[in-house]
Write a structure and sequence with these properties.
Helix content: over 70%
CATH topology: Sodium/glucose cotransporter
Oligomer: single chain
Number of helices: 17
Strand content: under 5%
């Protein structure tokens, strides 16, 4: 079996690297390298945004989470789907118009130009925030690659992480944003194929083997068969907010997702993107949730030393080798799409926001592209080291990054878009408080009670509002 799957993986790697290389043959200015130069269709950007937004977390982390929690895991899916739909319906047009109006390539640069009184401080703070959390985000994806190689090929995790790092760096290095989006599109379809096809096969297997999901939920453990996890009173609210709280990170604060909104050409392309993104989200999360429930019927609790390997185990158990290879490549696609997008976000923050805008280094377009490629290699190596040296769970690490970046920048974006009294001091207070409180929160037992994905959003928003009233800008902000 492994030989067939290995061949399919090799072919998959060759195809996406070839696509990335072909994209690199486009005339490559720095703006094209970082944001595509408004050359990409809306449907391609939507596929890319969805693949980037979900990552190995959806296929490995969320399916494993449902396997060990049962029906109450639905609130995670509902929170995320609601956030995605809100962002596409409400925020895409504003992001596109603002990016055009201020001629910006990155989210930090946009906020810095909007609040020019403290532009350089804002660029530094947001760039540090993004780099700090996204390095671990990249590391989490690479750790997921190691788990996939271990489960599929019984390969040493270190070897799997190194192979994945090389492919991820190559796809970002060659063509920057263009190659990332086009390879994302292919990989997004592969992810969706895995999440739609596998649950159908799993349900057929359950029916033909006289198994029952409802009976298995009852016997799996306390609360598995309850939509509220079997808790009552105040604990219901805690469970709901902890699971639903992924919603808050989608409200404009994830720069790797917002970059796709900023890259849209016009309203027509945006409408294409909205349709594709919503359909993809509903199909993918329904599929992932059903996979987790099906796994409860197929396997006993405690069957896996790492529950985040449930999905690859199910694929290997249910599928013939040639189909298994395609579906397993869908998991690898999820890892690669997110990791290379994270590399691009960190790279753009360092090259555009810090070196170009803040430090004012005068480099040609060609030199800026070369610099960005060097940064991609450096960030990729650091991410690989994090994956090799840390014992990380995908669900937890991505959750923390979601809080630190999304929970911090989402209130900043919403107030920038919709509240005229939001000030540069308020923005700085939002970023600093979000960063500090996320780190403090996840370092204490508080995160086990109320997740930082929820607390960070509201703490950052409160500090932003307070300091905007205490220290208003003397002049009206630009625009």
């Amino acid at each position: 079996m492994n030989n067939i799957i290995i061949v399919e993986f090799i072919l998959y790697f060759i195809v996406i690297i070839a696509i990335a290389y072909m994209a690199s043959r486009t005339k490559m200015s720095h703006s094209v390298f970082l944001l595509g130069g408004k050359q990409l269709p809306g449907w391609a950007l939507a596929f890319s945004e969805r693949a980037t937004g979900e990552s190995a977390w959806l296929l490995l982390g969320f399916t494993g989470f449902v396997f060990v929690t049962g029906l109450s895991g639905i609130w995670v899916a509902i929170g995320i789907a609601t956030g995605i739909i809100f962002a596409w319906l409400v925020l895409t047009r504003r992001f596109r118009e603002e990016a055009d109006k201020y001629n910006v390539l990155t989210l930090p640069d946009y906020l810095a130009i909007k609040f020019q009184a403290k532009a350089n401080i804002i660029r530094w703070l947001i760039s540090i925030l993004i780099a700090s959390f996204f390095m671990f985000y990249v590391g989490a994806q690479l750790a997921g690659a190691g788990k996939l190689f271990l489960t599929t090929f019984h390969m040493n995790e270190t070897t799997g992480i190194i192979i994945a790092t090389a492919v991820i760096m190559a796809t970002a290095y060659f063509g920057g944003f263009l190659s990332v989006v086009w390879t994302d599109m292919i990989q997004s379809i592969m992810m969706l194929l895995t999440l739609v096809f596998l649950p159908i096969v799993a349900l057929i297997y359950i029916g033909s083997n006289d198994l029952s999901i409802s009976t298995s939920l009852v016997t799996a453990g306390e609360g598995f068969d309850s939509w509220m996890g079997g808790v009552t009173g105040f604990a219901i609210g805690v469970l709901f907010f902890n699971n639903f709280s992924w919603f808050f990170g989608y409200l404009g604060g994830q720069p790797q997702l917002s970059a796709r909104f900023m890259a849209l050409k016009n309203d027509r392309e945006a409408k294409q993107g909205i349709t594709v993104a919503i359909i993809w989200t509903l199909l993918a999360y329904a599929g992932a949730f059903i996979i987790g429930l099906a796994a409860i019927a197929m396997y006993q609790q405690g069957s896996f030393s790492d529950v985040e390997t449930v999905l690859p185990h199910m694929i290997l158990d249910l599928m013939p080798p040639w189909i298994a290879g395609i579906l397993l490549a869908g998991i690898m696609a999820a890892i690669i799409t997110t990791a290379n997008s994270q590399l691009m976000v960190v790279t753009s923050s360092v090259s555009e926001d810090i070196i170009h805008k803040t430090l004012g280094m005068k480099l040609t377009d060609r030199q800026m592209v070369t610099l960005s490629r060097i940064i991609i290699l450096a960030v990729g190596i650091v991410g690989m080291i994090i994956a090799l040296t840390s014992e990380s769970l995908l669900y937890l690490v991505v959750s923390w990054a979601w809080a630190g970046v999304g929970g911090t920048l989402s209130p900043a974006i919403l107030m920038t878009f919709f509240w005229k009294k939001y000030s540069s001091s308020g923005l700085i207070a939002t970023v600093v408080s979000g960063f500090v409180f996320t780190v403090l929160w996840i370092s204490t037992p508080l995160d086990g009670i109320i997740t930082s994905r929820f607390s960070t959003f509201f703490i950052a928003a409160i500090f932003g509002i307070l300091f905007s009233f205490l220290l208003p800008d003397k002049k009206e902000q630009t625009g």
